[in-house]
Write a structure and sequence with these properties.
The chain is built from 13 helices and 18 strands. With 393 residues, the chain is of the alpha/beta class. The chain has two domains: 23-233, TIM Barrel (Alpha-Beta Barrel); 247-377, Lyase, Ornithine Decarboxylase, Chain A, domain 1 (Beta Barrel). Strands 2-3-4-5-6-7-8-9 form an eight-stranded parallel beta barrel, surrounded by six helices. It has a six-stranded antiparallel beta barrel with strand order 10-13-16-15-14-17. Strands 11-12 form a two-stranded antiparallel sheet. Helix 2 (23-36) packs across helix 4 (54-63) and helix 8 (144-159) runs parallel beside helix 9 (181-200). The structure holds pyridoxal-5'-phosphate (PLP). Pyridoxal-5'-phosphate binds next to helix 10 and strand 9. It comes from Nocardioides bizhenqiangii.
Length: 393
């Protein structure tokens, strides 16, 4: 199905709120990121590929030149294997009692962020590991104080045949602000950590520090590979790469009503009509991921024009002012509202919704609820021979 056909389908009166995922945009975005870096592109498909659907995004990313996958939990890695993906997969966020034996059995690579994890991983022989250095977030990864000991213990384990150190990784804290000195400091710490590992005798083939924003804005961060997550789906917080959003959310008007000036609207009566107007009701709300903070701020596209969201967004419903000045007297039940999309037709983008909700685009796209009808369009077409994640969940 083409995007247009999917939209037409969603436009039929009586149809449902629909999230269209454009995998051609994902493929194009991976090509764009691949052209920016000389390194390999790891497609980071965590959190259901940022809410876009792991299998479709993973396939589209491979078509665009990504060579392997990154995820947080082992569960996400096992799901990729179960869906038939045979590429290398790195999982970097696990508790020490995770099933590392199953990771070894499925050929999943794991990050080792400290001595406790190293001990757990040694107990499951045969794993390929990436030693993870904290490069300035105090979040995940070993501190510089522990790093030399970690590298030494990992080398001993490698010599004993228990594991192979195939990578060294870090993550930058402020890559969305390329000029922030924390990035240069993070790079310097990573370079130090990599050199220390090599001087001890480790020979990691992969050294990777950059995610989307650093890949787009900071060539010094590139090393041998970039871990691209947000960029797959068109998000670059450094605003330097020309990427395309991959999601369009539409919903039909389920009811329209004419109201007189002075009518109070929605829970808490947070908006009163200043004029006689026509209101439209959409069957999507905060349970579907529309942030309540965007109430009385957001806009949607109906009848070719931006219309304000009025009153509080409720759990299942959102109210739109369809008039009066740009007069949408013709509005009727079944007319389609575009809540967000790439912006081609003047519709808001997920980035605008993020602004209205005082958050990141990431939080908008990963917060979309399970009730939305999901349609995947574009190339490569969804291969029905390949089991979907829904089937193996
Ligand atoms: C999520 C994540 C990425 C991907 O980051 P994006 O900015 O979304 O490209 C890369 N590395 C790590 C460690 C992550 O957690």
């Amino acid at each position: 199905m083409t995007p247009a056909a999917a939209t037409a389908d969603a436009a039929r009166p009586g149809s449902v709120p629909t999230l269209v995922i454009d995998t051609a945009a994902v493929t194009a975005n991976v090509r764009t990121m691949g052209a920016v870096t000389r390194g390999e592109v790891m497609a980071v498909v965590k959190a259901d590929a940022f809410g876009h659907g792991t299998v479709a995004v993973a396939r589209a990313a491979l078509a665009g030149g990504a060579t392997r996958f990154g995820v947080t939990s082992l569960a996400e890695a096992f799901a990729l294997r179960a869906a038939g993906f045979t590429e290398r997969i790195l999982s970097w966020l696990n508790p020490t009692d995770a099933d590392f034996a199953a990771a070894a059995a499925h050929g999943i690579e794991v990050a080792v962020p400290g001595m406790a994890h190293l001990a757990a991983v040694r107990a499951a022989p045969g794993l390929d590991v990436h030693l993870q250095l904290d490069t300035g977030m105090a979040r995940d990864g070993a501190s510089p104080d522990e790093w030399i000991a970690l590298c030494g213990a990992a080398l001993a384990a490698q010599t004993a045949g228990e594991l192979s150190v195939v990578g060294v990784m870090g993550h930058l804290p402020c890559a969305d602000r390329p000029a922030d000195p924390a990035n240069a400091a993070g790079r310097a710490r990573f370079d130090w950590g990599l050199q220390a590992a090599q001087e001890l005798g480790l020979t990691p083939g992969d050294h990777h520090l950059a995610a989307t924003a650093a890949t787009a804005s900071d060539p010094l961060s590139h090393h041998t590979m970039s871990r691209i997550g947000a960029g797959l789906v068109g998000i670059d917080e450094s605003h330097t790469a020309p990427l395309r959003p991959a999601l369009t959310l539409t919903a039909p008007l389920v009811q329209v009503r004419d109201v007189t000036a002075g009518t109070s609207v929605g829970y808490g009566h947070s908006w009163r009509t200043p004029y006689d107007t026509r209101l439209g009701l959409l069957a999507v709300g905060y349970a579907d991921g529309l942030p309540r903070l965007a109430s009385n701020r957001a806009e949607v596209l109906v009848g070719g024009r931006r219309r304000p969201v009025v009153g509080r967004i409720s759990m299942d419903m959102t109210i739109v002012d369809l008039g009066p000045d740009d007069g949408y007297e013709g509005a009727r039940e079944g007319d389609l509202a575009t809540i967000f999309g790439p912006g081609d037709a003047g519709e808001p983008t997920a980035a605008e919704w993020a602004g209205w909700a005082e958050t990141l685009e990431h939080e908008i796209v990963t917060g979309l609820g399970p009730r939305l009808h999901r349609v995947t369009v574009g190339d490569p077409p969804v291969d029905s021979n390949r089991p979907t994640l829904t089937r193996i969940r």
